[in-house]
Amino acid sequence: MFQDKQVGYLYEVGNQGGIRRAADILGVNPSVVSRQIAQLERSLQLPLLERRGRNVVLTEAGRLLAEDYFASRQRREKLESQLKDLRHMRGGTISVRIGGGLITAFIEGVMREFARSYPQVFVDIVVGSMQEMLNDIVSGEADMALAFGPIGTPELKRHSFQWGPICAVVSPQHPIAQRQSITIEELLDYPLIALTENFGLQRHMNAMFKSQGLQFHPAYRCNQFSTAMGLSQAGLGISFMTAYAAADPIRLGALVAVPLDHPIASSAQCHLLRNSDRRFTPAAHHMWRLLHNAFRDK
C-alpha cells in the first residue's frame, strides 16, 4: 500500500516542521519530498499534512503513520544491534542452571574468565534442583545446566565428571571432625541434616542408606546448601555435600569435611547438560567450553 521511504519522508517533515527543512536533513530536493508524500496521500486517500502558519504539521493520519514508522525503526535498529553483537561475539543473553553445591566452583572456575571475554553478555544464573534443571533444559528455558547427582538417561547432550567424595560436613568441634572417614552406620549416632528430595545429592544419600538396609531420618530438612551449612556451623547436626560445595567455610576453618566410606560417595559425579537441538551463540559456546575444561581439570 505504501513504501517505507515515503513514510520516512513524512516522518521527517513532521519532525522538522517543514518540507524544505526535512529535505535538507534527508539530503534530497524538496520537490522529491513533496512528490513522495503526495503519492502516499493518493494511495491512502487521506490528507497527511496541513499548514499552520509558516509550518507544516501532520494530520491525525500522518501522525499515526509517523509514530508507527518511528517504532518500527527502533525495533529494526535494536535487531541490527543484536545481530551485530552476535557477529562480533558481544551482547546477548545466556541462561545457566546450577546445582546449589556447584556455585562456588562455577563462579571461581568459569565466570571470572567468561566475564573478561564477554563483558557485555547478560548471564542469567538460576540455582535449582536436579529435576528443575532437567525440565528447563528440555523446555528450552535454559541454555545449559551444571547438575550433581544420579541423572538417569535423559535425551540430552552430557559430559560427566567425578565430583566426589560426598562428605559429612560438621563444625570443627563436632565429635567426628578429626575422623579420616565415617561409615553410613556410624552417622546414625548423630542428628542429620537433609536436603529436599529433588536434590541430586539427597538422592545419593537416600541410596547409600538404603544399600545398608537403613532409613535416612533427618533432624532437619532444608532446600538450600547455605542453610544446611549454617546448621552444621551452629553445631546442630551433620550436613552432606562435597568439599567443593563447602569450600569457603572449610577454608575459613568454620567447617570440616569428612568423606563418607561408601562406594556411591566416592564415585559421585556432576553433569554438564544441554539440549542437543539448541543452537549456541558464540558466547554460549565459549561458556560451555569453559565449563567443560574447568570441571574436567578438577
Note the run of SSEs as H and E: HHHEEHEHEHEEEHEHEHEHEHEH
**Radius of gyration from the alpha-carbon trace, in angstroms:** 31 Å
Biggest sheet layout? 5 strands, mixed
Tally the helices: 12
Tell me roughly what share of residues is in helical segments. 40-55%
N→C terminal distance:
63 Å
Q: What fraction of the residues are assigned to beta strands by DSSP? A: 15-25%
Mean pLDDT comes to: 88
Query: How many DSSP-defined strands?
Result: 12
- Low-confidence spans: pLDDT under 50, at least 5 residues? none
Computed structural class: alpha/beta
How does the overall form come out from the CA principal axes? rod-shaped
- Order of strands, widest sheet: 4-3-5-12-6
Keywords: DNA-binding, Transcription, Transcription regulation
Protein name: LysR substrate-binding domain-containing protein
Pfam family, one: HTH_1
Family: Belongs to the LysR transcriptional regulatory family.
Features:
five-stranded mixed sheet, rod-shaped, alpha/beta, single chain, 298 residues, three-stranded antiparallel sheet
Describe the structure.
The protein is α/β, with parallel strands linked by helices. 47% of the residues lie in helices and 19% in strands. It is built from 12 helices and 12 strands. The protein has helices spanning 4-16, 19-26, 30-44, 60-87, 103-117, 130-139, 184-187, 200-211, 225-233, 247-251, 263-266, 282-297; strands spanning 49-52, 55-58, 93-98, 122-127, 144-148, 157-162, 166-170, 193-195, 220-222, 239-242, 256-259, 269-274. The protein has a 5-stranded mixed sheet, with helices on both faces. Strands 10-7-11 form a 3-stranded antiparallel sheet, with helices on both faces. Strand 8, helix 8 (200-211) and strand 9 form a beta-alpha-beta unit. Keywords: DNA-binding, Transcription, Transcription regulation. It comes from Kosakonia sacchari. Residues 9-59 form the HTH lysR-type domain. It holds the Pfam family HTH_1.
